[in-house]
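Checklist before submission:
- one chain only
- standard amino acids only
- sequence pasted in full

Submission:
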Amino acid sequence: MGLDTGEILVTGATGKTGLRLVEELSDRGLPVHALVHDENKADRIASLGADVSVGDFFDLASLREALAGVKRAYFCYPPAEDLLEASVNFALVGREVGLEMLVNVSQLHAREGHPSVLTRQHWLAEQIFDWAIPGTAHLRCSFFSEVYLIVAGTSIASNGSFALAYGEGRHAPVTCRDVARVAAGLLQGPAFRGSHRYEVTGPATLSQAEVAAIFSRVLERPVAYVDVPGEAWSAAAEGMGMPPFLVEHLTLAAEDLRRGAFDRATDIVKQVGGSEPQSLEEFIAAHAPAFTGAQ
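Returned file contents:
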């Protein structure tokens, strides 16, 4: 067990990284207070050993209740149009109650003036948290490995191919579990002042041709990558019911990827999270039923 950090608040505790962070902190013997929006999911989180509050980022009273007595917290919000408002509310209450350390999930390509509203809001949220919380760590994450489950799982299972607008761009996909490990390492460690930015990636950068080869090898059947123009991918995504806001963001992120904005790999998962990052081979093997239609 590390330092006596007191109870750690995990927001988005039923989400892909939040749930894994609750598990990770509990496994490390650290006291966890989880904030959930859906009270129907509270029992599942409580079963992991966490205290649970039901609240809303847009209800300041519920945030004050969740943050009462808390000195360290994890902020993660889904890719939605109201990210910035949620961030401002959390920063205001965090500053009000004297929050000392915050781990905030951001994006590898977050920057001022980005054409994607979501990416631009992530950058603005970083600035707000830097102002409000004495010690803030921003996890600037690469594309998640789980993206392949969402945007390619069905097509790989049905016809052995996946279509994306990534061109020959490279990225180092990282799993949600590894992001949670980095967050846990920071929240368990000594307090710090000022802002810190960590580029959280998988172990190696890959082109989509290399990704297809990995799928083929692990699944033991041919899988092909089909490169499509951004406009065609956007139209297909909207046709499948993806919200326009998210379609726009993912299309612009793909343009960044094509230009090389994600072409880097770091050792942050091992250095801060304490373990080697999961490779794409290992991720695909662990989720093989989703890519073969066997689940």
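Reviewer check: The mean pLDDT is 94.
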